[in-house]
Design goal:
By secondary structure, the chain is of the alpha/beta class. It folds into 2 domains: about 5-220, Rossmann fold; about 245-328, no CATH class. The protein is built from 12 helices and 12 strands. The radius of gyration is 21 Å and the shape is globular.
Amino acid sequence: MALLEVRSLVKHYPVRVGLFSRRQAKAVDDVNLTVNPGETIGIVGESGSGKTTLARCILRMIEPTSGEVIFDGVDLLKLGQSSLRTKRRELAVVYQNPYLSLSPRLAVRDLVSEPLVTHTSLRGDALNDRVVENLEAVGLSADYLNKRSRQLSGGQAQRVAIARALVLRPKLIVLDEPTSALDVSVQAQVLNLLVKLRTELGFTYLFISHNLDVVQHLADRIAVMYLGKVVEVGTTDQVFSQATHPYTMALLAATPEPHPDRKASLVTVQGSVPSLTAPPTGCHYHPRCQWAVERCRHEMPALRLDEDRRAVRCHFPREYFQASKKFE
């Protein structure tokens, strides 16, 4: 049984256009996604693709326009505030910038213990022992208990944020660009920590990032988003070795190639992301796709399973994949 099922999730924002008219910005547009227990799903795409909005809708930090979010058999969108508050102890989130997510007024002891005070009856020495246990799990000692976030390095602050996220042993942790604000060497440390925690404690991650190298290191499966829609879903190996949507291939081609003797792909992404208030007709990606044909300009492709059990939103995914191989 899946831990999380996102069904036909939609989030539209009303946007004023001119003095007297409004349009709908389709930030998340009919997204379907499944996350299994113990799995890490990477959500990738350019800025404005809807990655963070999708995560916030799943957590009900913002209210979706429509759809279902089935978490552990319960539709979170149908819960009242009291029931949702109880269910939220099974969900956690780690944000991009730890200094913005950690109150500068609170000591590390209070930051990490806050979820325990809110959702459990632990107090006194038992509470303190649980905090120390979680700090040690992320590589920090009890010496940090009385420090404030401003006294911590970026890597230390993000470790505190992770300790706070895992203190209730949630069933799902949303990681929203958790390493992008850190130095490269610290990024590697935090990523290795996340892998270690998942292996030892069995966490399930929804990992949001624009960095494909980071996602490749952590994710079991990858969902690629473009203009509010999922355009490709597959295992990490499938996506990196056999990408079949032109947008996915362009993202991979834009990633720096560490092997100087290997020929670069000629698959390119042109132009910029269109406006969410006026998306292109047909396939939203067609104005930037080097292989677009007339059908792409008028008909939105469905997200369909191919013979490898991969989901692809494209009229001709296999043909594009074969064409891209000619350039390697």
